[in-house]
Design a protein that fits this description.
heterodimer; A: 811 residues; alpha+beta; Aldehyde Oxidoreductase, domain 4; 6-stranded mixed β-sheet; B: alpha+beta; 21% strand
Amino acid sequence: MAKTKKTLAPIHWEFGTLRNPTPLMLELEEYSKELYGFTQVERVMRGEEAAPTAAQQRIDRARAEAAAAALASTAVGTRLPDMHGYEKVTGKATFPVDVYPASGLYTRVLRSPYPHAKVKRLDVSKAEQLPGVMAVLTPKDCPTMDPPILAEEPSHHGEAVAAVAAVDEGVAEAALRLIEVEYEQLPFVLEARDAMKPGAPLVNSRYRSNAPRDPFVYKRGDAAKGFAEADVIVEGTSQTAWEQHVAMEPHNATALWERDKLTIWTSSQYVHRQRDVIADTLKMPHSKVRLISEYTGGGFGDKTRAYPYHMIAALLAKKAGRPVRYELTRKDVFLECTHNYPKYQELRLGFKRDGAMVALQSRAWVATGDSGARSNADDFESAIRIFKCPNVDVIGYAPYTNTGISGALRTVGEPSGNFAFAILVDQAAEKLNMDPLDLYLKNIEERVDQVVNLPFSSNGVRECLLKAAEAFGWKQKWQGWRKQRDLTKPQRGVGMMAFLCNKGAMSVPMTAVCQIDRDGSVRVVQAGADLGGGQRTTFAMIAAEVLGVAVGRVTVTKPDTEVTSDTGIVAGSRATKSIGSAVKAAAEDARAQLLEGAALKLNVPQSDLDIADGVIFAKADPSKKLTIAEAVAAGVVVVDQVVLPAGAPIIGKAVVPAPRGYSQKTLGAGFFEVEVDPGTGMVKVLKIVQAHDVGKAINPLAVENQIIGGAIQGMGKALTEEMIYDPATGVVVNPNLDDYKLHMMATMPEITTIAVEPIDVLGPFGAKGLGEPVNIPASPCIANAIYDAMGVRLSEIPMTPYRILKAVRSL
Amino acid sequence: MRPVKYLAAPTWRDAINALAKYPTAKAIAGGSDLLGWIKDDITGAKEPQWDILVDIRTIKEGAAIRFSRNEGLRIGSLATLTDLESAKEVQENYPLLASAVGHPASPGIRNVGTIGGNINQRPRCWYLRGAEFDCYKKGGDFCFAVTGKNEYHAILEGELCYIVHPSDVAPALLALDAKAKILGPKGEKTVPFSEYFVGPRVDVIRENILQHDEVLTEIQIPPPVPSSKSSFLKVTNRGVYDFAIVNIATWLKLNNGSVEDSRIVLSGVAPTPHRSTAAEGVIKGKRIDEALAKQAADQALVRARPMSDNAYKVEIAKTLIRRSLLEAAGA
């Protein structure tokens, strides 16, 4: 009997076509797709990418598992402190913000006090005459960019209007006060749903409407039918806040012109992307613009794009004829740089009585700020893959609003989407009278990504759930669904969730060079920034592992567009997997070259050689050996089939294509215990356990740090962090770290981290990324734990005493 | 930050002379509030651009802490919060003060922040501190908290302006019946802290009685009262390193277990530290138990007029009054 091939229902997936796109919008669109791997959905829709055969999948997995199993225990898999940790903690590391060029000037920027206005008159003459002022920049000095470098129609509070370079910051500030501006205030709109209403104020007159694109739509199956068949339906709304990244190093740019060449030191996650945009905006060859970011004091997604401040520093430096430094104040950072925008979501889930989820419907709105055009999907597609679910109907809207520009903050829509989903799953578990852990275990889809019908490169979510539950003591701590709660004194509660985060796919460019010097030491040439996640140490470990040398023999270059070509971005939970793969391939190339020379010298076939502890030896006869330095000296080049001594260091290189056929996601689970004081609304987090599918931990110490850091950041988003726009004036009232409340070490609970290692079939040694998903569990876990303790459902974050008491006391 | 001139004052007299001479001069000690204030460029018709800083940390003996059984405690206003927190005479005789001075900000800030600065610090209202808002306190003609986000604003005694007093130390000083020694061009005077703070009903611009050329030089606390009990509690958003949503300093004098005298003072609820005579009236002559504490708490907030977002503060204030009475009384 002939086998019938199972066909899947066609994917209904619309990004929403751009209306009246500008070149920059298109570029952002491409960038976003590239960054977040949407192209895979499109490729699958076009029939260009399909799952490997079952046999091929078995081969891929066997190969990946063998590579992970064959690891020597000297590099990959060992707990190594950050290779630059000493420099960082002793203040010796030169961050871009520490760069003070000789005779450099200082910048201050005049920012709009209104969320929307027209600059009717701008007179900078008095400022120009102030002694010590070396250059004043106005919109007419600026080339076109989106968002504008200096705005004539500012459309969010704090948009830059004019800028001054002076001999010190005090003079620059004094000059700002001498600038005369006459504004005509214009109507504004802050909330996404308001922006879409008929008759809403137009966010900026350069747009024809507040909706830059049609809504994002994703459907599979028939949601109406799914809900009709469901025994239990839960629904609810959720609201997240405007959130800031608050990287420890504030954004900065220090610009230096040498005739027609521009150098900018800037704290960056991706110097090459920024370089390209800056050069294009200035109509300069890319090679004439150099960006350097030796160290990066945190990024979280906020330091990937070229901002007006880069251009302001460059243009002021040109105009003044002197280097110009612009270190943004914290307020500048809040107002100019991106923030994660609030999402309002209406979500509905349907379940059968046995707990099987059969329908999901979501409608969501995000306020995207006043410029740029996000690719909608990443805002709205979270939580549509984690559970097996035949019927899904998702629509999302992302209009412009008169708020600061929006961007990724440890992903774009995953924390908010998973918050909406996981608090509803908890409600469903209660209605079904099931342990929520069992509801997750019943529903998780572990094999195939239901959107693209491709196998997961690894999916360790079940193991994450089981191991974290065990470490947390869930079965003991969770007391079942309580009917009564004592609201007269502080109560403890527990909450959990698991997630599939749509981030972590390998994406091009993935390139690297691995050079072995004459003394046998190794240099990895790459441009990935180390944001604090220990990325450079990871790359050194990968190269050391391949080459059989001590990690201490490897150095890794820092981001500098003049040193390397574009080797890939550090964002989207992809650096370890993408750049790491390129580093591994480049090291393998170098190793092959090394062994080629060694084989000639030792008169042993190349395949019989191995390297350990920096020594190349014949596997059959270890007395036949060479040091790596000797092998480099024995290196050869082949010209017209003649073998000649190379007399050069070995240069391994790699350009790795994006792999196809697998869905690459990041997964994990979180369990939190809290104590809630019903008299004050204070929440104390007592215990956190987070388990993450990391594929294979290259550096378990870095994995642990990453999870702890993410849990802490997640606690801040869950409990205290909220950037507040005054509704009447559209002005941000808390652009500072007193009123925008980050969480502190002093309130950190016990945090247990678990690395689950199911071996990713694509990543280097089976590794995958862990950058972003680490902050997903906190908000839903805490909300669910508060419910367990207090019997109230919070669906709005941050869960401040104000919101908790409002719910507990029905204020 | 705008450029400023710096003057170091060797004596209190030099300090007030400089302040009298320059209308835009401001005394600076730890600077943990003032420098942020200047950096944030908070100015207006009634809020000058401070551009001369008169350093008073250079004053000898300005930070002295002296205790005697007869006179009580004398604290130089330049004593840092850390000085006080670690001073034996404070820990042994004034546990309420020792607890209160350990609550503001972080250890790093308490190392530089002085008790005088903590008492005289400006309110945290984000409209007052936002350069974009020309509010009553800066000489403008509007209170933006009324139409805006007022989660942290006053629930009691607000009028025109709805700031709250931010200090953790001030309520403890009121509860301990402390006095302020003030030096000005006309000489020295001593004023009880119960008359030190000024609310918007009296003057919307200022928060205390200090004139521009006057300085707070010393805090005087009467000798410890035998059989007195106290409690300091504070609720913040973040749990640590944060200004109070509400704090409370409670001082009780017990006689055979009954309340003979009491002072119950809250910050974070009103434009000045708020002494709740209503609560004190409820407990006078009575033995504190759960029911009485609740009654006192309810009575204390009868006159609360919460705004759109801050009714939760009424609940917190009630909780704190109840808990602090029970804690102080050991009930």
